[in-house]
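Need a sequence for this fold. Nothing fancy.
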């Protein structure tokens, strides 16, 4: 039991440190540009998905690179992305994933698509991941769509209104 407890404490500590690192990164003004966010996203996706043996592509339209996001949007946008990629790696059993970032004024659209086992979104799950993503999207006035069916993969889409 002590070994299990230490494992749980270690995991919780690691998660807390990762979250603090993400928050500190997101409030740094030099990271306002979408280009910096995309670089961090590519690094996280590479580390996380390759460890789970999931190949991926990251497609970004040219207009998105030039955007600047306010601190709160930047933080929540990145943390939604991170939660979706983490869930994909842990639960999807996918072999491929596609990450798309596109600007369709006045919105920024993030899509994460996998070819995994999917799930039934109507069944309540004990984890906080989906709930956290919905809460984060709401905080930045975004719309989160999760399309999943058992056996057919999952698509997570965030539509984020851009402030002028």
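Here you go.
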């Amino acid at each position: 039991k002590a070994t299990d407890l230490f494992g749980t404490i270690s995991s919780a500590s690691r998660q807390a440190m990762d979250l603090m690192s993400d928050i500190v990164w997101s409030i740094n003004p030099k990271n306002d540009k979408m280009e910096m966010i995309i670089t961090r996203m590519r690094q996280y996706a590479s580390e996380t998905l390759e460890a789970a043996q999931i190949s991926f592509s990251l497609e970004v339209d040219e207009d998105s690179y030039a955007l600047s996001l306010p601190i709160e949007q930047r933080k929540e946008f990145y943390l939604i992305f991170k939660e979706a990629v983490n869930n994909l790696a842990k639960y999807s059993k996918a072999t491929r994933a596609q990450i798309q970032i596109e600007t369709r004024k006045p919105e920024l659209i993030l899509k994460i698509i996998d070819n995994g086992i999917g799930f039934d979104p109507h069944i309540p799950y004990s984890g906080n991941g989906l709930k956290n993503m919905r809460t984060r999207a709401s905080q930045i006035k975004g719309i989160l769509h999760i399309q999943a069916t058992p056996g057919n993969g999952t698509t997570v889409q965030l539509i984020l209104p851009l402030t002028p």
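For context: The helical segments are 2-27, 34-51, 62-65, 71-91, 129-139.
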